[in-house]
Specification:
By secondary structure, the protein is mostly helical. The chain has one domain. Helices cover 79% and strands 0% of the residues. The longest helix is centred in the N-terminal third of the chain and has 37 residues. It is globular, with a radius of gyration of 19 Å. The two termini are 15 Å apart. The N terminus is likely disordered.
Length: 296
């Protein structure tokens, strides 16, 4: 009976990690849409600077309700610094990607990230990557490729290199997140990441220049800041509760939300092939959840 209880506990923790991570995909995709609206006026660095400064407010609230400032003592400060720098570089490329490309298309390219995470979580983190995990990632990736398929067979131009770069940097960030989860509280990781990102973007924007937002733009910036903070908080907790290779395929859910937002905001109508791709994305995540629960 004891063994059964322990097994059920492991299932519960893994499921919590997956659900929290799925919530992060909703928050982050809505934030991406708001940021895309901001890039009509601002450069990627400007958008990150204003969003990062505003995000320090909800970050402070999270820290206060997660045990106070004593939580900010990190067991691995240099790793947190590295994660913050990589997160800044990743965010710049992500914002640049959604400025250059349609939202769903940019995210579809960025989400080769789970393949990279799944491939590296074994040799880097020592986690076992099962054939179920590889299968789920492969199905989700197939769905992503159906979504990204260029209309009319037109070739993709150099701009696809930007989201590809974001995918590789994002994989490095996710692996560091999983590594830090063993030693640091999620609020610690979140705090250092957001502070490093804000300071880094402040240096860059000081070099490139900026202009003051309007009242309406400030509302967009504040909303994006709250959403991105909540998304990062959920991501960090997800990686703490579940193995990187287990939750990585759930990133593909963002493609579904991106398609819906693209239709609602910009009037983008999803083609049948892309709709099939979205179904594959959702199916891969649901199958992985069922398979991992049964395996435990």
């Amino acid at each position: 009976m004891a063994a059964t209880g322990v097994g059920a506990g492991r299932i519960g923790v893994r499921a919590q990690g997956i659900l929290v991570f799925c919530l992060s995909t909703v928050l982050l995709t809505v934030q991406d849409a708001l940021t895309k609206l901001l890039t009509d006026t601002y450069s990627p660095v400007e958008a990150l600077f204003y969003r990062g400064g505003a995000a320090l407010i909800p970050v402070a609230v999270i820290v206060a309700f997660s045990g106070g400032w004593r939580r900010l003592r990190s067991a691995r400060p240099m790793t947190n610094l590295a994660r913050g720098i990589i997160s800044l570089a990743t965010s710049i490329l992500v914002v640049w990607s959604i400025k250059l490309l349609p939202l769903a298309e940019a995210l579809a390219i960025i989400f080769i990230n789970p393949l990279i995470v799944a491939a590296l979580s074994g040799p880097v983190l020592g986690e076992r990557v099962s054939w179920r995990q590889w299968g789920a990632v492969a199905v989700g990736f197939t769905g992503a490729m159906l979504i990204i398929r260029p209309s009319g067979g037109a070739p993709l131009d150099w701009s696809v290199l930007v989201p590809i770069g974001a995918a590789f940097l994002g994989a490095a960030r996710d692996l560091l997140t999983r590594y830090l989860g063993a030693s640091d509280h999620p609020s610690t990781v979140l705090f250092y990441t957001m502070v490093v990102m804000f300071l880094g973007s402040a240096v860059l924007v000081g070099w490139s220049g900026t202009h003051a937002p309007s009242i309406g733009e400030w509302w967009l910036i504040l909303a994006a800041a709250v959403l991105v903070t909540g998304a990062y908080w959920c991501q960090i907790n997800g990686f703490k509760l579940a193995a990187a290779a287990v939750i990585a395929p759930y990133k593909y859910l963002s493609l579904v939300w991106a398609g819906l937002l693209g239709w609602a905001i910009w009037g983008d109508v999803m083609e049948p092939v892309k709709a099939v791709g979205c179904l594959l994305v959702v199916a891969s995540g649901l199958y992985l959840l069922r398979a991992e629960t049964a395996r435990a």
